[in-house]
Write a structure and sequence with these properties.
It is a single chain. This protein has nine helices and eight strands. By secondary structure, the protein is α/β, with parallel strands linked by helices. It has an eight-stranded parallel β-barrel, surrounded by six helices. Helix 3 runs parallel beside helix 5 and helix 6 packs parallel to helix 7. The two termini are 24 Å apart.
Protein backbone atom coordinates (compact mmCIF):
# COMPACT_ATOMS: atom_id res chain seq x y z
CA UNK A 1 0.00 0.00 0.00
CA UNK A 2 1.33 3.41 -0.99
CA UNK A 3 0.18 5.48 1.95
CA UNK A 4 1.54 8.67 0.36
CA UNK A 5 -1.15 8.45 -2.34
CA UNK A 6 -3.85 8.64 0.31
CA UNK A 7 -2.59 11.97 1.65
CA UNK A 8 -3.90 15.46 0.93
CA UNK A 9 -0.92 17.37 2.35
CA UNK A 10 -2.51 20.35 4.07
CA UNK A 11 -1.69 23.96 4.93
CA UNK A 12 -4.73 25.97 5.96
CA UNK A 13 -3.54 28.32 8.67
CA UNK A 14 -4.70 31.83 7.93
CA UNK A 15 -1.30 33.54 8.19
CA UNK A 16 0.68 31.17 5.98
CA UNK A 17 3.25 32.93 3.80
CA UNK A 18 4.76 32.00 0.44
CA UNK A 19 7.79 30.34 2.01
CA UNK A 20 5.54 27.97 3.96
CA UNK A 21 3.44 27.16 0.91
CA UNK A 22 6.59 26.42 -1.07
CA UNK A 23 7.77 24.14 1.73
CA UNK A 24 4.44 22.31 1.60
CA UNK A 25 4.83 21.87 -2.15
CA UNK A 26 8.45 20.70 -1.79
CA UNK A 27 7.32 18.07 0.73
CA UNK A 28 4.46 16.99 -1.51
CA UNK A 29 6.85 16.53 -4.42
CA UNK A 30 9.39 14.69 -2.30
CA UNK A 31 6.85 12.17 -1.07
CA UNK A 32 4.55 12.21 -4.11
CA UNK A 33 1.46 13.02 -2.07
CA UNK A 34 -1.92 12.81 -3.78
CA UNK A 35 -2.70 16.53 -3.44
CA UNK A 36 -1.77 19.68 -1.59
CA UNK A 37 -4.79 21.12 0.24
CA UNK A 38 -4.65 24.91 0.32
CA UNK A 39 -6.66 28.12 0.37
CA UNK A 40 -7.76 29.43 -3.05
CA UNK A 41 -5.35 32.37 -2.89
CA UNK A 42 -2.45 29.92 -3.40
CA UNK A 43 -3.87 27.91 -6.32
CA UNK A 44 -2.08 29.71 -9.16
CA UNK A 45 1.24 29.61 -7.34
CA UNK A 46 0.90 25.91 -6.56
CA UNK A 47 -0.25 25.12 -10.09
CA UNK A 48 2.87 26.63 -11.60
CA UNK A 49 5.08 24.51 -9.35
CA UNK A 50 3.15 21.27 -9.67
CA UNK A 51 2.71 21.29 -13.44
CA UNK A 52 3.72 17.96 -14.96
CA UNK A 53 3.76 16.12 -11.60
CA UNK A 54 1.44 13.51 -10.08
CA UNK A 55 0.47 15.83 -7.22
CA UNK A 56 -2.80 17.70 -7.69
CA UNK A 57 -4.40 20.66 -5.93
CA UNK A 58 -7.28 20.53 -3.47
CA UNK A 59 -8.85 23.89 -2.65
CA UNK A 60 -11.13 24.47 0.32
CA UNK A 61 -14.44 26.20 -0.38
CA UNK A 62 -16.70 27.89 2.16
CA UNK A 63 -13.93 27.41 4.70
CA UNK A 64 -13.98 27.09 7.65
CA UNK A 65 -17.66 27.38 8.67
CA UNK A 66 -19.76 26.68 5.57
CA UNK A 67 -22.04 29.61 6.33
CA UNK A 68 -21.67 31.30 2.96
CA UNK A 69 -24.65 31.25 0.60
CA UNK A 70 -24.93 28.56 -2.02
CA UNK A 71 -24.28 31.19 -4.68
CA UNK A 72 -21.10 32.31 -2.94
CA UNK A 73 -19.81 28.76 -2.70
CA UNK A 74 -20.48 28.15 -6.37
CA UNK A 75 -18.71 31.37 -7.37
CA UNK A 76 -15.73 30.45 -5.21
CA UNK A 77 -15.66 26.93 -6.65
CA UNK A 78 -15.79 28.09 -10.27
CA UNK A 79 -13.03 30.61 -9.62
CA UNK A 80 -10.88 27.93 -7.97
CA UNK A 81 -11.38 25.60 -10.93
CA UNK A 82 -10.50 28.39 -13.37
CA UNK A 83 -7.27 29.02 -11.46
CA UNK A 84 -6.31 25.34 -11.56
CA UNK A 85 -7.87 23.42 -8.66
CA UNK A 86 -8.33 19.70 -9.33
CA UNK A 87 -10.38 18.86 -6.25
CA UNK A 88 -12.63 20.91 -3.98
CA UNK A 89 -13.43 20.40 -0.30
CA UNK A 90 -16.66 22.19 0.64
CA UNK A 91 -17.75 22.88 4.21
CA UNK A 92 -21.33 21.85 4.91
CA UNK A 93 -23.66 24.31 6.62
CA UNK A 94 -23.99 22.67 10.02
CA UNK A 95 -26.84 24.93 11.18
CA UNK A 96 -28.96 23.68 8.27
CA UNK A 97 -28.10 20.11 9.22
CA UNK A 98 -29.13 20.68 12.84
CA UNK A 99 -32.47 22.08 11.69
CA UNK A 100 -32.99 19.35 9.06
CA UNK A 101 -33.41 21.91 6.27
CA UNK A 102 -33.64 19.13 3.73
CA UNK A 103 -34.87 21.21 0.80
CA UNK A 104 -32.09 23.78 1.28
CA UNK A 105 -29.37 21.16 1.62
CA UNK A 106 -30.57 19.07 -1.32
CA UNK A 107 -30.65 22.13 -3.57
CA UNK A 108 -27.20 23.29 -2.43
CA UNK A 109 -25.58 19.90 -2.93
CA UNK A 110 -27.23 19.42 -6.31
CA UNK A 111 -26.30 22.90 -7.55
CA UNK A 112 -22.68 22.54 -6.44
CA UNK A 113 -22.40 19.12 -8.07
CA UNK A 114 -23.74 20.56 -11.34
CA UNK A 115 -21.40 23.57 -11.18
CA UNK A 116 -18.28 21.48 -10.55
CA UNK A 117 -19.05 18.90 -13.27
CA UNK A 118 -16.25 16.34 -13.50
CA UNK A 119 -14.11 17.66 -10.63
CA UNK A 120 -13.67 15.61 -7.46
CA UNK A 121 -15.71 17.21 -4.68
CA UNK A 122 -15.72 16.38 -0.98
CA UNK A 123 -18.29 17.47 1.61
CA UNK A 124 -16.85 18.33 5.02
CA UNK A 125 -19.48 17.25 7.54
CA UNK A 126 -17.77 18.65 10.66
CA UNK A 127 -18.57 15.51 12.60
CA UNK A 128 -17.42 17.01 15.90
CA UNK A 129 -20.56 19.15 15.87
CA UNK A 130 -22.96 16.43 14.75
CA UNK A 131 -24.84 13.59 16.39
CA UNK A 132 -24.73 10.10 14.90
CA UNK A 133 -28.17 10.69 13.41
CA UNK A 134 -27.03 13.97 11.85
CA UNK A 135 -23.96 12.30 10.33
CA UNK A 136 -26.25 9.71 8.76
CA UNK A 137 -28.64 12.40 7.55
CA UNK A 138 -26.13 14.62 5.72
CA UNK A 139 -24.11 11.66 4.43
CA UNK A 140 -27.19 10.24 2.74
CA UNK A 141 -27.92 13.61 1.14
CA UNK A 142 -24.37 13.77 -0.23
CA UNK A 143 -24.71 10.26 -1.62
CA UNK A 144 -28.01 11.15 -3.26
CA UNK A 145 -26.44 14.24 -4.87
CA UNK A 146 -23.62 12.07 -6.29
CA UNK A 147 -20.71 13.74 -4.50
CA UNK A 148 -17.37 11.95 -4.58
CA UNK A 149 -16.41 12.05 -0.89
CA UNK A 150 -17.75 12.75 2.56
CA UNK A 151 -15.05 14.15 4.85
CA UNK A 152 -14.99 14.20 8.63
CA UNK A 153 -13.74 17.62 9.62
CA UNK A 154 -12.08 20.96 8.97
CA UNK A 155 -9.85 20.51 12.02
CA UNK A 156 -10.80 24.04 13.08
CA UNK A 157 -12.11 24.54 16.63
CA UNK A 158 -13.85 21.15 16.84
CA UNK A 159 -13.00 17.49 17.29
CA UNK A 160 -11.40 16.05 14.19
CA UNK A 161 -11.68 12.51 12.88
CA UNK A 162 -12.50 9.73 15.31
CA UNK A 163 -12.52 6.03 14.54
CA UNK A 164 -16.20 5.53 15.51
CA UNK A 165 -17.32 8.35 13.21
CA UNK A 166 -15.10 7.16 10.38
CA UNK A 167 -16.44 3.60 10.68
CA UNK A 168 -19.99 4.95 10.63
CA UNK A 169 -19.27 7.02 7.52
CA UNK A 170 -17.61 4.10 5.74
CA UNK A 171 -20.60 1.90 6.55
CA UNK A 172 -22.98 4.53 5.18
CA UNK A 173 -20.82 5.10 2.12
CA UNK A 174 -20.77 1.52 0.91
CA UNK A 175 -19.62 1.64 -2.70
CA UNK A 176 -21.60 4.81 -3.44
CA UNK A 177 -19.21 7.45 -2.08
CA UNK A 178 -15.71 7.59 -0.61
CA UNK A 179 -14.62 8.78 2.84
CA UNK A 180 -11.84 11.20 3.80
CA UNK A 181 -10.57 11.38 7.37
CA UNK A 182 -9.16 14.74 8.44
CA UNK A 183 -8.42 16.61 11.65
CA UNK A 184 -6.01 15.12 14.17
CA UNK A 185 -4.40 12.57 11.87
CA UNK A 186 -0.84 13.03 13.10
CA UNK A 187 1.04 9.75 12.92
CA UNK A 188 1.48 6.68 10.76
CA UNK A 189 -0.54 4.72 13.31
CA UNK A 190 -3.40 7.22 13.04
CA UNK A 191 -3.39 7.12 9.26
CA UNK A 192 -3.15 3.34 9.12
CA UNK A 193 -6.09 2.89 11.49
CA UNK A 194 -8.33 5.02 9.25
CA UNK A 195 -7.16 3.34 6.05
CA UNK A 196 -7.80 -0.05 7.63
CA UNK A 197 -11.31 1.23 8.47
CA UNK A 198 -11.92 1.94 4.80
CA UNK A 199 -11.10 5.59 4.08
CA UNK A 200 -9.75 6.45 0.66
CA UNK A 201 -8.12 9.75 1.57
CA UNK A 202 -6.34 11.32 4.55
CA UNK A 203 -6.23 15.07 5.14
CA UNK A 204 -3.32 16.14 7.33
CA UNK A 205 -0.62 18.74 7.83
CA UNK A 206 1.55 15.95 9.21
CA UNK A 207 2.22 14.09 5.97
CA UNK A 208 5.96 14.15 6.48
CA UNK A 209 5.69 12.85 10.06
CA UNK A 210 3.46 10.05 8.80
CA UNK A 211 5.87 9.07 6.02
CA UNK A 212 8.86 9.15 8.36
CA UNK A 213 7.10 7.32 11.18
CA UNK A 214 7.67 10.11 13.70
CA UNK A 215 5.94 9.94 17.09
CA UNK A 216 2.96 12.12 17.95
CA UNK A 217 5.18 14.41 20.04
CA UNK A 218 6.98 15.44 16.84
CA UNK A 219 3.78 16.16 14.92
CA UNK A 220 2.42 19.61 14.22
CA UNK A 221 -0.98 20.91 15.27
CA UNK A 222 -3.30 19.65 12.57
CA UNK A 223 -5.90 21.06 10.18
Amino acid sequence: MEINRYIDHTLLKRDAITKEVDNLIDEALKYNFRTVCIHPIWIKHAKSRLKGTDTNITAVIGFPYGTQTTESKIFEAKDAIKKGADELDFVSCVSRVHERKTSYLKKELKKIRKATKSKTIKLILETGLLTKEEIEYISKLAISAKWDFIKTSTGIETTGATLPNVKLMVELAGNKIKVKAAGGVKTLKDAQSYIDAGVKRIGTSNGVAIMEGKPASAAKSDY
